[in-house]
Amino acid sequence: MSATRPPTLVVIQLTGGNDMLSTVVPYGNPLYYDMRPAVSFQPEQLLRIDDMYGFHPNMAPLKPFWDDGKMAIVAGVGYDNPSYSHFPSMDIWYTAEPDKVSHDGWLGKVVREIDPKADNVLTAVNFGRGLPRALSLAGVPVASVAELDSYGLLTALSSVSERESALEVFGRAYDDGWNDMGLPCTTPMSLAERMGPVLSYMGRTGLDAQKGADILSSAATSYQSTVAYPGTPLASSLRGIAQVKMAGLGTRIFYTSLGSFDTHASQPLVHGKLWTELSDAVAAFYEDLRSHGEHEDTIVLMWSEFGRRVMDNGSGTDHGAGGVAFVIGDRIKGGMYGEYPSLRPDDLIGGNLRHSVDFRSVYGSVLDQWLKIDSQTILNGRFEQFALV
Q1: Does 176 reside within a domain?
Q2: DSSP E strand boundaries for the chain
Q3: Could you point out which of 51, 77, 201, 347 has its C-alpha 20 to 30 Å from the C-alpha of 131?
Q4: What's the CA gap between 221 and 151, in Å, rounded?
Q5: Who contacts 103 (Cβ-Cβ below 8 Å, separation ≥6)?
Q6: Is residue 58 domain-resident?
Q7: What is the mean pLDDT of residues 326-340?
Q8: What is the CATH number of the domain that holds 136?
C-alpha cells in the first residue's frame, strides 16, 4: 500500500440474514444433509474450498480471491443471547453494543477518530437511501447517495433554476448568518443556543449535505473506466464508490447494502440470485480498482445481522444465529478464521447455530490492523483478534 494513500474500508451489509450453511457449505458433514433435505447442495455443485467446505456455486467470481489468499472467511459470527428479529440484531451490529441500547454507530465513531474536527464532509459516504445507523453519530457528517450521477439535494425539481432557488432558501433558513460578510462570530451566544439543539443539528446537516453535493458532483464527470459493471443496483453502488475513491476526495469509509437475504421461502432461487449479484459486482469493482492502481489500499467487509435456522422449512430457512463474515482485499491474509459451528443437535441453541466468534472481533481486527485505530475507543473493550492483515 502506498504510503501516500491511507487505508480505505468498504462495508457491504447483507440485509435480512444471510444463510451461512448455503454460503460456505459444510458438504463434508453428513448432518448437513440430514438437516437440509430441501435446500442442500450436492458436492459436485459447489466450488470446493477443501474436503469439508465449499462455496455457493454462484460465488465463482469471488473464488479467485480465495485461491489467491485474499479472502478471509470468519465463520460462526454472532453474539451472546442472540436476537432473532432483524431490527434489534442490526442495531447491535450497527452500534457494537449487544447488552444495551445505543444511538452511536460504530462507524460514526470511526469517522470522528479519522476527522475529529469534521473538516471533510466526505470522510464517509453511504450509497443507498437513508443513513445507516452504523454511520450515525451526532456531529459527524455523512453523505448519503442514491445515484452518483444524479446526486444532490432536491434533484426531483424539474428545472435547474427551481432547484437552485430551493437550495438557496434552504441554506438561508439553516445558516447562522455569520458567514454572510465573511466575519467571525463575536457573540458569546452559540448557534445551538440561538436555534435550539435540534434545529442546529438539522442546520449543520443541511449545510454539509449541500457542500457534499457540490463536491461529489465532480466525481462522476472525472471518472473514466473500461470495466463493464453489471446492470444491478449493487454494481451501480460499487461503481459509484470507485468513482468517488478515484476522485481523491479523502473518503475513507464507504457503505452500501444488498438484500433481502430473508429467505423463508424459495431460498435456492432467491439466495442464488443475491450471491450472483454480489459476486459479480464485487469482482467488477476490484477489476476497476486494479485497472487504476487503486486496489492495494482498499478492503471490503461483508456482514449480515444473523444466520439462518439449521433445519430447513421445506422451501427456505427461518431466522437463526451464528453467521459468516468476509473480508476481501490484496493485503488480507486469506483463510478460514474462527471455528465453524457444530451441527450436532446437542450443540444447537433452539435449533440454531451457536456462534463461535464475537462480531466485535471482526470489527476490532479491521480497526487495529487495517485502519490503525484503537479498537477499544470504538468498541468499549478488547476482543480476540485474527491476523487478517
Answers
A1: no
A2: 8-15, 24-25, 47-48, 54-55, 71-78, 124-127, 143-145, 253-259, 298-303, 323-328, 335-337, 357-358
A3: 77
A4: 12
A5: 95, 136
A6: yes
A7: 97
A8: 3.40.720
